[in-house]
């Protein structure tokens, strides 16, 4: 496995990088970096981890993450549909806080930008008309170079700083406590859960896999994920159930058992706790 903490994706000679991703899968590694990141999903779906937020991702999703906020987009399908037909596509923009110089953010003109940069430390996801507008602007940036690109990036950030069409992702109490060794260990745990969440998961198995006692693993996971292992597994299962209800038009009972729950009553209880809706209400609200 490659190192989880990657070197800067921005060459020293550049103020920012905007590129089209066209790969069999999105980068599957749990990692963080010192750059700000804007990410647009053009093709593909799966589960997105940002800080302690765990949610499904889909085409059109746009997120803005701040420095050192751990993240991972895990595609549902780990291999491309065909060797020459990648199914995960997106646009990623990286830039550093001082890409306009060391003093710009301290000016009166940058007050909105300072505020949105603080919000990005928890991760932001954009919705509604803002998401539609940002998608067009992000796609335009990919084809720009030089000063035109910097000016356009500022337009994107200005749009972000003026909108109310967003929600924050990581909880207000989330703090990144990860070290490089932790990111690889947590990725190993996440990967195992994503492959096995439909089956019964025992903490003892995860503890053995990470060379810990069950008690030590439970404590370790809660410190780094900001939630219990049981809660994390429930979120993964409910996220999968949401996709079954909406995308595959499954009924509630089928979604329950195909997501790893053993009883319908527990499924309904966990679903409402996580989504604030019953499965039927969720399907009615979001179903096409």
TrEMBL record:
Gene3D superfamilies: Homeodomain-like, Jelly Rolls
Keywords on record: DNA-binding, Transcription, Transcription regulation
HTH araC/xylS-type domain: residues covered: 187-285
Molecular function in Gene Ontology: DNA-binding transcription factor activity; sequence-specific DNA binding
Statement: the UniProt record of this protein carries the keyword tRNA processing: no
Name of the protein in question: Transcriptional regulator, AraC family
Species of provenance: Pseudozobellia thermophila
């Amino acid at each position: 496995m490659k190192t989880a903490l990657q070197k800067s994706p921005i060459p020293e000679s550049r103020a920012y990088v905007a590129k089209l991703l066209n790969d069999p899968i999105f980068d599957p590694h749990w990692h963080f970096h010192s750059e700000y990141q804007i990410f647009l999903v053009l093709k593909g779906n799966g589960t997105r981890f940002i800080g302690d937020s765990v949610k499904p991702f889909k085409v059109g999703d746009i997120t803005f993450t701040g420095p050192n906020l751990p993240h991972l987009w895990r595609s549902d399908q780990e291999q491309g549909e065909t060797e020459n037909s990648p199914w995960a596509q997106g646009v990623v923009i990286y830039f550093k806080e001082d890409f306009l110089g060391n003093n710009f953010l301290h000016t009166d003109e940058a007050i909105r930008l300072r505020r949105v940069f603080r919000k990005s430390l928890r991760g932001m996801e954009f919705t509604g008309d803002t998401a539609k507008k940002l998608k067009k602007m992000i796609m335009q940036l990919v084809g720009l170079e030089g000063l035109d690109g910097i000016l356009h990036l500022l337009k994107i950030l200005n749009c972000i700083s003026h909108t109310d069409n967003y929600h924050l992702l990581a909880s207000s109490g989330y703090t990144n406590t990860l070290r490089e060794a932790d990111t690889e260990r947590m990725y190993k745990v996440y990967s195992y859960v994503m492959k096995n969440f439909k089956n019964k998961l025992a903490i003892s198995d995860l503890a053995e896999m990470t060379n810990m006692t069950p008690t030590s693993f439970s404590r370790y996971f809660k410190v780094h994920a900001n939630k219990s292992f049981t809660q994390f597994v429930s979120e993964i299962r409910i996220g999968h159930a949401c996709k079954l209800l909406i995308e595959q038009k499954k009924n509630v009972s089928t979604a329950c058992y195909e997501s790893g729950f053993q009883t319908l009553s527990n499924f309904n209880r966990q679903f409402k706790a996580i989504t604030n809706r019953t499965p039927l209400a969720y399907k009615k609200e979001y179903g096409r």
